[in-house]
Amino acid sequence: MRALMPDRPSPQVEKFDGTTNPDHHLRNFIDFMAFYTQSDPVKCRAFSLSLRGEALEWYYTLPPNSVDSFRTLTSMFKKQYSTNRYEEVTASELVNLRQGKDETLRAFMHRYNHAARRIKGASPEFIISSLPNCLKAGFVSESLYAELPNTLEELQQKMAKFIKMEDQRIFRKQQHEEHPVSGNKKEGKRRVENVQDQKPPANLNPRYDRYAHLTVPREKVLERALQGHTTERCQTLKDELEKLIRVGNLREFVKEDSGRTGHSPRKTRRSPENAKQKGNHSRDRSRSPPRHRSRSRPRERDLTVKGRIDTISGGFDGGGASSSA
Asked: Pfam families of this UniProt entry (predicted)?
């Protein structure tokens, strides 16, 4: 087929490369050629100018004299690229379309409008009435249920307002996450707890080198000796009990073979005495306070306890009378 091309520039049509919908390309080409020429031979020759790549290679492989009209060329073109056509969307597919849980209204309306345009013969009333059921439950769907738009133009205007509201809400949420409000009570409480957790642990080392061997468990002794006192740690109780024993109390609970009388706490520790008490000492002497302790030793702090305290007046050599409180 021979044709004389008009003496004017050819129309600038978006070129088809074989990957898009052939029907869309044919419509665009025919619309542009309507202002250029109505001649079939010219359309057939100009059609190659709208192709590129693999599609242009296909055009040049057509057998000679196989194209007798533009209708024949379009039929051959559609068959060659029929697999690129969009599948038609049915009305049931539009009704079953659903907005995702985390999908924005803007993204869903893009999908909904695209699907609605691909339904052949879909009425505006059907597209409008189907939208509320496709939206996720919330303010937007309830507003559409309450008052449906009358036209597609009203629907688009109404949805544009809802999209602006959603965009503003998302923007404010992002600002709050990037710049949180100061003075949050929960965060303040969490900081205080973290500071408390970072405090150094209390020193749990024992205060004395040796402790008296008791005839009964310490719990029984504490019931009598530490009435009204609060028990914090086992080591503290042992130290308090040792203080009472060293000032002469609770001797009835101390074993006779305990050779540790007179030892001071570690902080004021002196050289240990080598003399050991004989096993034949009497019970009364073992209960009495030791005579070899120095008078210069610091006084133990007062304790509000109940017990027996023996005192000696007149010194070691005076031989004075003793009193009991």
From this structure: Retrotrans_gag
